[in-house]
Design goal:
The complex is a heterodimer of chains A (115) and B (112). With 115 residues, chain A is mainly β. Chain A is built from no helices and eleven strands. In chain A, strands 2, 4, 5, 6, 9, 10 and 11 form a seven-stranded mixed sheet that branches. In chain A, strands 1-3-8-7 form a four-stranded antiparallel sheet, with no helix packed on it. Chain A is globular. Chain B is mainly β. In chain B, the strands form two sheets. In chain B, strands 1, 3, 4, 8, 9 and 10 form a six-stranded mixed sheet that branches. In chain B, strand 3 and strand 4 form a beta hairpin. Chain B starts with 9 loop residues before the first strand and ends with a strand. The chains are: A mainly beta (115), B mainly beta (112). Chains A and B meet through strand 4, strand 5, strand 9 and strand 10 of A and strand 3, strand 4, strand 8 and strand 9 of B.
Chain lengths: 115, 112
């Protein structure tokens, strides 16, 4: 158990809909990262927050947004869903803001299926 | 459990043998590298890391080798066990960024 909690574990929805994925980082971790793992793209970095502020951005679509709340949990919002958005979405956390100063702890992921 | 389902290269290893997993990275500016293990139905789990000022680092039953000249990273697992069956990813990070870029992954299957 990494200490990172993600909900829901599974989500099935229709095209055009909007969903919110939630992540609670490990106790004491200030950084939260979101990754997308799909069949043809592997693990793709989406976005990072550190202590409530956006710190780094990857290939995140404009239809997607995220935020980190004062209690450090984070939400990833996916809107106008398309079939290609079906994937595993992972949240990871770390103590520091820089990746090269420590490892990331990943949750077990939220599997999104868009029909 | 669920599988990622990626079309990954697969390494079949006899239990007890050593495994070597290779990874080519693309960015010569990358200065920090990590190996992750992903078991079916779980998130990636940190195995070992190495910084660019080193060429070898050892952990428990694992060794990571870094060859910056050819931008190559390898993970060696000694005395491979059934519990080592998983997908292994290398990841690289540039000094100036916080974006950990993952490689495509290698599936390791341990045969009893």
């Amino acid at each position: 158990d990494s200490g990172v909690t993600q909900t829901p574990k599974h989500l099935i929805t229709a095209t055009g809909q909007r969903v919110t994925l939630r992540c609670s980082p490990r106790s004491g971790d200030l950084s939260v990262y979101w990754y997308q793992q799909s069949l043809d793209q592997g693990l793709q970095f989406l976005i990072q927050y550190y202590n409530g502020e956006e710190r780094a951005k990857g290939n995140i679509l404009e239809r997607f947004s995220a935020q980190q709340f004062p209690d450090l949990h984070s939400e990833l919002n996916l809107s106008s869903l398309e079939l290609g958005d079906s994937a595993l979405y992972f949240c990871a956390s770390s103590v520091t803001s820089g990746i090269n100063t420590g490892e990331l702890f990943f949750g077990e992921g939220s599997r999104l299926t868009v029909l | 459990g669920e599988s990622v389902g990626l079309h990954l290269p697969t390494l079949s290893v006899q239990e007890g043998d050593n495994s070597i997993i290779n990874c080519a990275y693309s960015n010569s500016a990358s200065d920090y590298f990590i190996w992750y293990k992903q078991e079916s139905g779980k998130g990636p789990q940190f195995i070992i890391d190495i910084r660019s000022n080193m060429d070898k680092r050892q952990g428990q039953r694992v060794t990571v080798l870094l060859n910056k000249t050819v931008k190559h990273l390898s993970l060696q697992i000694a005395a491979t066990q059934p519990g080592d069956s998983a997908v292994y990813f290398c990841a690289e990070n540039q000094a100036a960024g916080n974006k950990l870029t993952f490689g495509g992954g290698t599936r390791v299957l341990v045969k009893p």
